[in-house]
Amino acid sequence: MKEVALFIPCFVDQLLPEIGMDMARVLQRAGCAVNFFEEQTCCGQPAFNSGYWQDARPLAERFVRVFSRAEAVVCPSGSCTAMVRRFYPDLLAGTPAAEEAKRLAERVFEFSEFLVNVAGVTDIGASFPHRVTYHDACHTLRELGIREEPRRLLRGVRGLTLVEMANAEECCGFGGTFSTKFPMISAAMGETKAAGAERAGAEYVTSTDPSCLLQLDGILRRRKSQVRTIHLASILARTEADGTNSGNQE
Amino acid sequence: MNAAAEAFLREAAATAANGELHQIVRKGVEHYDAAVERGRARFLDWEAARQRCRKIKREAIDRLDLYLEEFERRVNERGGHVFWAETAEDACRYVTDLAARAGVRTVVKSKSMVSEEIRLNAALETRGIKVWETDLGEFIVQLREEPPFHIVTPAMHLTRRQIAALFREKLGGVQTEDPQELTAVARRELRRAFFSAEMGVTGANFLVADSGAIAITTNEGNARLCSSLPRIHVAIAGIEKVIPRAEDLALLWPVLATAGTGQAITCYNTLVTGPRTASEPDGPEEFHVVLLDNGRSRLLADPEQREVLHCIRCGACLNACPVFRTIGGHAYGTIYSGPIGSVLTPHLRGLAEFQHLSFASSLCGACAVVCPVKIDLPRHLLQNRRNAIAAGLRPAQERTGFRLWRWAMENDRRFTMFGWAARFGWKMARRAGLAGTALDPARRWTKAREMPEIPRHSFRALWRKTHGAG
Amino acid sequence: MAQVENPARERILARIRAATRSVPSSRTAPDARPIFAPVSGPLERFRAECAANATECIVVETASERGRALADLLGGIPEGEIFAQDSPKVRRALALSGTRQIRWSSEGAPSENSQAGVTLAEALVAQTGSVVVSTACGGRGASLVPPVHIVLADTSQLAPDLPAAMETIRRNGTLMACSSVCVITGPSRTADIEKILVLGAHGPRRLVVLISRESD
Description:
Mean pLDDT of chain A: 95
Strand order of the largest sheet of chain A: 2-1-3-4
Number of strands of chain A: 8
CATH class of the largest domain in chain A: Alpha Beta
CATH superfamily of chain C: NagB/RpiA/CoA transferase-like
Number of domains of chain C: 1
Strand order of the largest sheet of chain C: 1-12-7-4-2-3
CATH architecture of the largest domain in chain A: 3-Layer(aba) Sandwich
Shape of chain A: globular
Mean pLDDT of chain C: 94
Structural class of chain C: alpha/beta
Distance between the termini of chain C: 44 Å
Distance between the termini of chain A: 35 Å
Largest sheet of chain C: 6 strands, parallel
Order of helices and strands of chain A: EHHEHHEHHEHEHHEHHEHEH
Number of helices of chain C: 6
Low-confidence stretches of chain C: none
Number of helices of chain A: 13
Strand content of chain C: 15-25%
Strand content of chain A: 5-15%
CATH topology of chain C: Rossmann fold
Largest interface: B-C, 102 and 83 residues
Oligomer: heterotrimer
C-alpha cells in the first residue's frame, strides 16, 4: 500500500476544505494510506510570486523539513505542486536546503498525475452524470506538463460527458495576488474564460487548481451563470450512492 | 505610485472593460493562432528549430563584442558607415545631423521598433523634416498620431471602418471600406513619398557578422523601397541583433515568419551589405548603420536575464498573452508591450518607473511556450518582481504585510489562529452588511466577483474530527 | 563622409566585454536533429509552394519556349515601359516580344511608370517557393518597383531548401559582389487591415516565374 502525505495548500485548508477531504477519500479508494502532517502551513508561493523571496525562503525550507519524511506527497493544486517542483530550486539555490528540496521535488505530485502515473488508476468508480468542461490550469499544464491525466480520469467517470472549451488552455485570470492587485484585468480575463465554459454548454467547469476555481466561481456567480465549478477531486469522490446533487461551491 | 504606474492602472482598467476592443483583438489573435498552427506543421521538428535558434542567438550574445566588431569591419570595407550610439539621444542626433548635412527634407521609414524606442520621428520633425511611415499599419497609426498597438501588427486595434474614416479625413476622397482599396490608397500616397524622399530609414531584423549585412524582413516591400530609392539609407538596430553567419538565416527567417505571422517565410527577406556599387543601376549612395546600446549592455551584464537579448521581436508572446489580449498594446504606455515589454522595459528605462508591469501578469506561462528562442519570460517577470522588492520600490504596507504573513505561516498554530480569525472577520463583515462596500476587507476581490461561502471548519479541523490528531 | 572618432564605441565595447568576460563562448553545433523534412522532387515542390504563396509558376521545356511564354505574358500587360535586366539571356528572351518599349538596367533604374520588371534569378528555393535575386539581377528596383515582376529561370537553379540556397550564394560570392540580395516569396502583401490578406501592398502585385527545364 502506497503511503501518501497530503499537501493541503493554505487557502484550501481555510477556504475550500472539502476539496482536501474529497482528495483524501479518492486516494484512500485508490488504495493509499493517507497522512496529514499538521505542521504544514504554506509553501511560500504568494510571497515568492510577489517578489518577497526572503519571506518565501524560510517557508520553503520549512516545507522541505516537514515533508522530508513523506514517501509521496500529493497536492490538489497544480500551482502549489509547481512551486515545490519547479520554483524551489530557484528559490533555495545556494542554501543548505537545496539538496533536500531537489529530492523532495521528485516525490511531490499533483493529484491527477499521481492517480494516473503513480497509482495507475484511471477509473476510480466515480459517478457524476453531468456535462463537464476541463479548464487547463496554467501551472498544471505549462509548468508540470499535465494535459491528458485529468481528462483520462474524467472520461472514466460514470455518466460524465466531457465537453471541451475552445479556450481550455487560456488563463482564468486568477494569478494569485494579481487578482487583487489588478482586479479589473483579472476579472476581464475571468469573464473571457467563463464565456468559453458557457459556450461549450457545460454544467460544470472543473480543474486541478482550486485557485482557478475560486476565481471562476466568483465570476460565474456574479454573471448569474448556470455553470458551476467543482474540483476534479470532488467529481472523483462522487459515487452513484451520492446521487446527482453535488458541486462544492454552490 | 509613480505616474507611469498610475497611467497603466487607469488605461488597463478602461481597456479591460472595453468589450469592442477585446473582440477586435481576439479576432486578430485567433486568426493568428490558426495560421501559426499551420505554419508549425511545416516543420518536422519545431522544438529542434527553437532550440537551434536559441543556440544561434546565444552564440552571438555571449561574444557580442567580437561579432559586432566583425560586422562593423565588413560594413566599413564595403563603404558603409557604422555609428555606435550609447543612448537614444545619441542615435537621434546622428541621424538628424546626417539629414541636415545632406539637405534631407523628406524621410521614408519602414517599421522599426528601435526607431520608436529612440523617438526618431519626433527628432526629425523638430528639425523640419517630413517623416512618412510606410508600413501600412504604421502609416495608419501615424495618421492617428498614436504609437503602434502591437510590434508586428501596429493597427491591430482598428476596424476597416475606422481606417476608412481616418483616410477620408486625412487623405480626402476615400469612399471605400474595402481593405484592398484602402491598401491601394496608401500605396498611391506613399509611392510619391518613396520617389521624393532623400533618406530611407529602416530597422534591421538581424546584423550578419560574417557578411557585414543587415537583414530586413517585410511582407509589403516597403523596407526594400526605403533602402533602394532614396539617396541615403540609414538602418538602426539594437546591438543584440547581431548573428554570426549568413547561413543562420536559413533557419531564423522561417522561424521568425512562423512565430510572427504563421507564414512559411516572409515575402521579402532582404540583405543589404552597403551602398550601390559602381556597376549597379540604383540603390543609395550612402549606407549607415546605427548600433544602439540604450541599456542593452547593462542587461547583458545580468547573467540571470541576459537571454532577454535573444528576442527577435516576432510578437508571438503578445499574441499568446491573456493580459495583452485583455488590455491591448497601448495601455502598457511603453514601446515594447506584452510579456517581452514588461520584462525588457525596466532594463531600458529603469526598474523604478516600470516595475509595475512585471506585476501585471498572472504568470500563466503561455508566452514562454510560444517564444521561438525559448526565453523564459515568466521567470524574468518573477526576477523583476524580486529585484523591485530588493530595491525597496514597493509600498511599505505590502512589505509589512508579507512580513506579518510570513510570521503567521512559520508556525502552524499561528496559521490556524490567523486563518480562523480571517474567516470569522469576513463572516462578521458580511453579517454587518459590509460586503461590497468601501469597508469590505475583500473589496478588491468582490468588486468584480463573488466571495466563496466561508466554511465553518478548516481542513485541519475536519481532518482531526475524522482521523484524530496528527 | 569622414569617420569621426566616437568614444561611445569604446565605452559600449568595454561594457560588453566586462559583461561577458566570465561567459564561456559557445559554438552552435551542426544540426543534430533534422528540422525540416528533406525536399524530394524540387520542381514539384517549388510549383506547389508557388501555388500556396500566390506566385505564378510556368514551366516550359526550352529557353525559346520560355521566350514565347514571356511574349504572351507581356502581351497582357498594359502599354508602357518594360524594365529589364541587361543580360544576353534576357535580351534573347525579349527579342521574341516584338515592339515593346524596353528600358535596360544598363540605362539606369526603373521609372515610376514601368509596367513590368524582367530579371534572372540567383537561385530558386523549392522548400519555400522563393526566388533569390541580387542587385546583379537588374538592380534593387527591378524586382520591386514595377507592378509585375517576371523571373526567367531554369530547373538547374532549383535549390532544394534555404540552407542550400544560402550555400549557393556563398559559393558564388554574391554577397561580396552585390550590395543587396533578396529572397522573394510571392507578390508583396499586407494583412494590416483586419488581418485580411491584400496583395500588392508596396511591391509587385504579381510575381511570375518562367522556368525552362533546359538551361540556356
